[in-house]
Specification:
- Chains A, B: It holds the Pfam family Csx1_CARF.
- Chains A, B: InterPro entries: CRISPR-assoc_Csx1_C, CRISPR-assoc_prot_DxTHG_CS, CRISPR_assoc_ribonuclease, CRISPR_Csx1, Csx1-like_HEPN, Csx1_CARF.
- Chains A, B: This is TIGR01897 family CRISPR-associated protein.
- The structure is a homodimer.
- Chain A has about 425 residues and is α/β, with parallel strands linked by helices.
- In chain A, the strands form three sheets. Chain A has an eight-stranded mixed beta sheet with strand order 3-2-9-8-7-1-4-5, with helices on both faces.
- In chain A, helix 4 packs across helix 5 and helix 11 runs antiparallel to helix 12.
- At the A-B interface, helix 4, strand 9, helix 5, helix 7 and helix 12 of A face helix 4, strand 9, helix 5, helix 7 and helix 12 of B.
Chain lengths: ~425, ~425
């Protein structure tokens, strides 16, 4: 299945010209229509800006209808049209005077479309985007693609970015459309890209002092009664470090907290859902003000929690952690470390009892320091540190946890992940 | 030191408007001039396109002079002006009809400028870029920034991307300029970003069948007599995998091959050096054709080899590999695995002789399989696999190699890195 995303500016001035794609010529007024024909694209998604809205409009629906009319009159309707909350001049602005809703809107809706359509080939045509659009739309769609790839364990999804030689009137072409980037993305590459923004030196401060403030304010404003106790910057960084070092057991044991946190973030982004757009707009003196603050880090968090939630789906069995290491390690080094540790545990199989028992005890250590892991060993052994890991037989498999139901070492693990 | 990069389109139409940066207002015709004042920028670098060239020109120097005149007449000269080989309409095209020189030019020259100025704060203003410029310039400058950060071990360099609310005539503003991205980049983040393109599933094929063909053709065309035997796609992937898994010893032992390969790639990109621009241009029937094929992967390779060359500078001593693990590991997991292995080696210090001796022998294994590593163990132990690693005392330190001068195991290591 092939999908093409295209951010566009104002189509009013798009003239019929000749585009050349892969040696064939197409006469049309939009480059994405030429690409769609040339590559037999199954679904085309066009992101137009809400600022194309007719100046007479005084509400969102009027704007939406006028943009739809303006675009379809010029470009037809052989595509899905999504209208994004863009900033434009001083006429369309965010109340915080930042430019974040466009990115968040495109990330959130593209991810939904990718999940619904499960493409193997994804294209972006940046030709008709203006100003910040090619950059922000591309980055937002990339983030959605990475999330989709990890969630679907789809190695080798093709992401190609097309651009036409700039069309200058009255020259009718032919203008060559060619890719500026093209790659088959792997799960590892996608995973590392999603983790990357969290590795900045001040990212944790930003998440804590900026992003979570917005999140808590939004919850308060909507008087939503959700448990936020476990959804905070510290928890986010436990997840980041667990994913980075392949400590999958932590994710498995925390899956309900991950899902709870994801739900909170998802509720904020859901306001940007195209089918149910809930961002309030103020129409004042010919200006349109988006009455919402959503930093783009909310999309980063959403993506992180989506993949953490997906990876954490498994059970706390050695065989399933083996699978996770094969599929979701950030490097071969991390993968082989975990596989080595699992082999070591399997060698002790006969000594593993039916009820949760500290790994150190199984190894014959007399007075182990329960719940007192050595940080370096915890990280260097894929999370199977002997003073915090409990093992027991479960059928043919070996089960593993950071608690035996009595003594809970997960707090100690978190200390070292922080 | 603060530096600001700004890609621009045609400045002819830039009118004086009011820009607002961090609450202060500036009356000027270029957003980067407002940012420069507001943030006390030390150096501003403007990337204009060669396609601004006067239509009467018939050679590069005439173009360059006419672009310089056009830009400085409108925007003054309080900045360094670099003229980039952009594609524009069907008037300025590459002979392969692709769009790669702009990216390569901005990567190569930005890296040079970063190295000369050693900034702690780096800004990009995408406001005035048109079409593909904001996307490609941002990506190219990002790659240069990552390379600069690893080469200078500069944790926490600030990269901020600014954009103005789009200026629409005759509205005089004030237009808010704000950042759309901002982060303090760490060495680890930079390293992972540089490795990322090499993790795609078909990247090795592309490097082998597309990129190295261009490289070899370029060498032939210039009848350069360089030894290319060790500079090939296989070697590139040994480097990628060694960096990813923290097998720093491999890089140290291969430093001369790395530098040789870097030199080959650098020679190609050097044609794009602003001070010594050597890409041939054909002026034909009012068209300008760039007579050069340089895929953007050449910049990826250049960046990879630059950081590999930097990291490989050390000596093959345990203490230096310890340092490398602290500074250049792709995850804490990789770092702690290496530190653990080094501790294990140090514990054997008394048994380590003065001449290179196989690690397996030192560990008391009777008939070790010399040069026959187990892949998983090689990767999972930071490269210190007992059947390929030779150790000997050197002063207070311990030296390490994959050869004892007689038996050379580096080929076996490469088999597992491939």
């Amino acid at each position: 299945m092939k999908i093409l995303f295209a951010p566009i500016g104002d189509p009013t001035g798009y003239d019929d010209v000749t585009y050349s794609v892969k040696g064939k010529e197409y006469n049309t007024n939009a480059s994405f229509l030429a690409i769609s024909q040339a590559l037999n694209i199954d679904k085309v998604v066009v992101y137009a800006g809400l600022s194309l809205c007719d100046t007479n409009c005084n509400d969102y629906n009027c704007c939406r209808n006028s943009v739809t009319q303006k675009v379809t009159q010029k470009l037809g309707n052989k595509f899905d049209l999504l209208i994004a909350p863009n900033v434009f001049s001083t006429r369309f602005i965010q109340k915080d005077r930042k430019n974040t809703l466009y990115f968040n809107f495109i990330y959130f809706n593209s991810l939904k479309i990718l999940e619904e359509n499960k493409p193997d080939e994804i294209y972006i045509d940046i030709t008709h985007g203006i100003n910040y659009m090619p950059l922000l739309a591309t980055d937002a769609i990339r983030l959605a693609v990475y999330t989709y790839i990890v969630e679907n364990k789809k190695n080798g999804v093709n992401l190609t970015i097309y651009d036409s030689e700039p069309v200058i009137k009255p020259n009718k072409g032919p203008y060559t459309i060619d890719n500026i980037y093209s790659e088959k993305i792997t799960v590892r590459q996608a995973l590392l890209s999603i983790l990357s923004p969290f590795l900045s030196s001040e990212s944790k401060n930003v998440i804590k002092n900026k992003v979570f403030k917005v999140i808590y304010n939004s919850l308060k404003a909507n008087s939503e009664d959700v448990n936020t106790s476990s959804c905070n910057a510290d928890f986010i960084y436990y997840i980041v470090n667990a994913l980075s070092a392949g400590i999958f057991l932590y994710l498995i044991l925390k899956k309900s907290d991950i899902n709870n946190c994801l739900n909170i973030i998802d509720n904020i982004l859901r306001k940007l859902s195209f089918n149910n757009f809930a961002v309030q707009l103020k129409f004042e003196d010919g200006k349109v003000i988006y009455d919402e603050n959503i930093p783009i880090e909310i999309s980063y968090l959403h993506s992180l929690l989506r993949i953490a939630s997906h990876i954490a789906q498994g059970n706390n069995k050695i065989s399933e952690i083996h699978e996770m290491a094969e599929n979701y390690s950030t490097s071969d080094s991390v993968k082989y470390v975990i596989l080595n540790e699992i082999d070591k545990i399997k060698k002790e199989k006969d000594k593993i009892p039916n009820s949760p028992t500290l790994y150190a005890k199984i190894l014959g250590i007399d007075s182990p320091s329960v719940c007192s892991a050595d940080k370096r060993n915890l990280i260097a052994h894929g999370g199977f540190e002997q003073n915090v890991t409990f093992l027991w037989k479960c059928g043919e498999d070996i089960c593993v946890s950071y608690t035996d139901g009595n003594c809970n070492c997960i707090g100690n693990v978190e200390e070292h992940l922080g």
